[in-house]
Design a protein that fits this description.
- The structure is a single chain.
- This protein is of the alpha/beta class.
- The protein is built from nine helices and eleven strands.
- It has helices at about 10-30, 60-85, 100-110, 125-130, 135-140, 175-185, 200-215, 230-240, 255-270, and strands at about 5, 30-40, 45, 90-95, 115-120, 145-150, 160-165, 190-195, 220-225, 245-250, 275-280.
- An eleven-stranded mixed β-sheet has the order 3-4-2-1-5-6-11-10-7-8-9, sandwiched between helices.
- The N and C termini lie close together (about 10 Å).
Length: about 280
Amino acid sequence: MQNILVPTDFSPEAHNAFEVALQVAHRTGGHITLLHVVSVPGSSGVVSTGSGTAGGGGLADVFMLKLLQVTKQRMLEWMVEAYRDMPDVPVEDLVQTGPVDEAILEVIRSRHIDLLVVGSHEQTPGTHFFADSGAERLVRLSPCPVLTVKHPAHDFEVRHLVFASDFTAEADRAVPSLQRLRAAFPDALLHLLDVEPSVDRHQAALDRIHDFARRHQLGPYEPDVFDAPKVSAGIPRFAEQAHADLVVMLTHGRTGLRHFLQGSIAENVAVHAAAPVLTLHPQDY
């Protein structure tokens, strides 16, 4: 979690993400790329606000140059704020044109980003059907871990870290990331959470949790089995009751049956839980 990308549209939600990213980078010795994407039909790539031209001339180019100059000024304001608050964290600004999701994914690939931090509204069941969540799409499509942030966090201190899983063999792939998080937040209490629809499954769930913890020598942890008819609803409810500062989940992303079974749960939790949610792809982590 040292090469961090923060896309911004200069909204309060994006600023929340930037604020958290700065604190994560401070703890991990990382650096940040602050990205703004200007959506221009038929155009993509890195742009400049220098003395060069943006295209073939005319009013459209004049408008584009003015837009880019305003954009760079707003980026500069955020970078000045970052230097004031976290002077040890290097921040580089980057402006690109093109479809937003495509531009973000291209930067992740080309710059070998290992953490994407995005801002999002906390969605309710009534609004989610109608809302087109960019954060949810990025959770599904990003090849690197995605940290979704929905609220301001002036002091991002992780005291309660929740890893939500069914603790089958695939959960083992999250262990390196959990170990890195515990190194970054050594005082955090690790909650190992399984959500089950009925009480008669509790003992089997607890057995899986304890076996997982012993197998990986996780040290102090709190085993938690939570009753809920749906996993996607149970995780946010538990996180709220446990005062979770960070929720960690595996997601399959991409498409196919595995995505519908597990990835859709992680995407749903990422935009509905009040706490920040870190989603990991098991094939990479």
